[in-house]
Design a protein that fits this description.
By secondary structure, this protein is mostly helical. It folds into two domains: about 425 residues, Growth Hormone, Chain: A (Up-down Bundle); about 55 residues. Helix content is about 75%, strand content about 0%. α5 runs antiparallel to α11 and α14 packs antiparallel against α20. It starts with a helix and ends in a 26-residue tail after the last helix. It is found in: Cell membrane. It holds the Pfam family MFS_1.
């Protein structure tokens, strides 16, 4: 849980620090909109691209060993990110942190699955998901306090003492576990997945920068990414040692839950990315106040995630996840009510509703994913869960961030053209984001104050368009879950499942769901 805390904490801190990092030196790094997105996506792409291999490493060599190595890499990357002297260095060192996070995250859930018996796993996973909410709650407040008293790099340096405590606690308290049937690695699959994701997301970000998704360069990059990902799928289906066994997706409880996780994080990450700019740049709150205002999103997850299993036991995972995704869509549409003068309690209510809804989606979806696979493959199963969550989040920032940027550029374009003597390059940078426009206002002084109101109006308009698209994505997730996630399990079926677990054999759900390789492998429990 402490290892999970630090990985999630870092990302939630970074959200609050975005506005500061966007400011010119020495207060920040002068990062543009695309550079801010890459500060998030460089971490996410490395994280997601290497999760397959990290999960296999944990299954083969021991999850505890891999997790400890990941903590060391994450700590080193945090120090390097804190002393970055430009956006390019920050992006590179965030990628190093992504490598550390990739080694940490699958091992946390895999260890939980091996320590607890099947009947206790839903409760344990609910607490695991609640830990994410705790990190989300602590992150913005911690980031705001640090930014109020120290320089922007302190939001990364704060990771170091937590890493040291986690290393000591892991060494003393956590048992090791591994897959007794060691398999071979799949370096080609890993390379294809990383290359495909980088091309795809880069193309989407470039489309937002150019405000033209039909540009040949954008189409070629996005098309190339999709082609490489298609080759990845073909390779994984044919190789004898896949990083991701595609036969897992034949199980509806696995594939529908994975799709729900990816879609909800696609929408959520994109929305929270620009919510920080609404709170700080449009409403004028400080980073600390922004962190406090986002607290209801995390508090709701902390309250409801550990208890979601009780609702699932009564109504079933399909009903609970579908209702959760519908509520997420309604919460996103609540952002359409916000403007420059909306009472702040409306925003707080929207955040709480979103947090409560997500708390009823992630635990049952994660349980469905993990319990549909053999326990021996807990590392790779956890990697799949986190990969789709991170890829969904990366694409959410890229797609929704690019949509927001393109819409904002169109809205403020006319006002920027009225500024006399403004070079074309400066006009392009100022129109990329509201932070770019406000930075221009600071340079122009009194002559630029006329741009503030149009910039805020253009951002609100762009935000309204973007949240509608996010709501549509959430509705798509609700449809996927309602159609394909298995319904409520009958008591006698659940009892049979527990009996199967107690006999150390993980059975498939039925003859229609082909059994992945190693499904019948004997599970070797680590000491509890």
């Amino acid at each position: 849980m402490l290892s999970l805390l630090i990985v999630v904490l870092d990302n939630s801190i970074l959200n609050v620090a975005m506005k500061t990092i966007a400011q010119p030196a020495p207060a920040g790094l002068g990062a543009g909109q695309a550079e801010l997105e890459w500060a998030v996506n460089s971490y996410t792409l490395v994280f997601a691209g290497l999760l397959f291999t990290a999960g296999l490493l944990g299954d083969r060599f021991g999850r505890k060993k891999v997790l400890l190595a990941g903590l060391v890499v994450f700590g080193v990357g945090s120090v390097l990110a804190a002393v970055s002297t430009g956006p390019g260095q920050l992006i590179a060192f965030r990628a190093v942190m992504g490598l550390g996070g990739a080694l940490v995250m699958p091992a946390t859930l895999a260890i939980v699955m091996n320590v607890f018996p099947r009947e206790e796993q839903p409760k344990a996973i609910g607490i695991w998901a609640g830990g994410v909410g705790l990190a989300i709650a602590i992150g913005p407040i911690t980031g705001g306090l640090l930014l109020q008293h120290f320089w922007w790099g302190s939001v990364f340096l704060v990771n170091v003492p937590i890493v040291l405590v986690a290393l000591l606690a892991m060494t003393l308290l956590v048992p090791d576990s591994r897959d007794p049937d060691k398999g071979r690695f799949d370096p080609l699959g890993v390379l294809l997945s990383v290359a495909g994701l980088v091309l795809l997301v880069y193309g989407v970000i470039k489309g937002g920068q150019l405000a033209d998704f039909a540009d040949p360069q954008v189409l070629a990059t996005v098309g190339g990414g999709l082609l490489v990902l298609a080759l990845f799928v073909l390779h994984e289906r044919r190789t004898s040692h896949p990083a991701l066994d595609m036969r897992y997706f034949r199980k509806p409880e696995f594939s529908a839950a994975v799709a729900a996780v990816a879609l909800v994080f696609f929408a959520l990450t994109g929305v929270t990315f620009f919510a920080v700019f609404y709170i700080q740049s449009v409403r004028g709150y400080t980073p600390l106040q922004a962190g406090l205002l986002m607290l209801p999103l995390a508090v709701a997850q902390m309250i409801f995630a550990p208890r979601a299993r009780l609702v699932v036991e009564r109504f079933g995972a399909k009903a609970v996840c579908t209702a959760g995704l519908l509520t997420v869509a309604a919460g996103f549409l609540g952002f359409a009510l916000l403007d420059e003068t909306t009472p702040i309690w409306v925003l707080e209510t929207v955040f709480f509703v979103l947090g409560a809804a997500i708390a009823h989606i992630m635990p049952p979806a994660t349980v469905s994913i993990m319990q549909s696979l053999p326990t021996e493959k807990a590392g790779s199963g956890s990697a799949v869960n986190n990969t789709f969550r991170q890829v969904g989040g990366a694409l959410g920032v890229a797609v929704l961030g690019s949509l927001l940027s393109a819409r904002y550029r169109e809205g403020v374009k006319g006002e920027l053209e009225t500024v006399p003597g403004l070079p074309e390059g400066a006009r392009h940078t100022a129109g990329e984001s509201i932070e770019g426009t406000l930075a221009l206002v600071d340079r122009l002084g009194a002559a630029g104050h006329a741009l503030v109101a149009p910039a805020r109006a253009a951002f609100i308009d762009a935000m309204h368009v973007t949240v509608v698209c996010a709501a549509v994505v959430a509705l798509l997730g609700a449809a996927v879950v309602a159609l394909w996630l298995p319904g409520r399990t009958r008591p006698e079926t659940a009892k049979g499942s527990e009996t199967a677990k107690d006999s150390e054999t993980v059975k498939d759900s039925g003859p229609e769901s082909p059994e992945p390789p190693d499904a019948g492998a004997r599970h070797v429990e680590s000491p509890r």
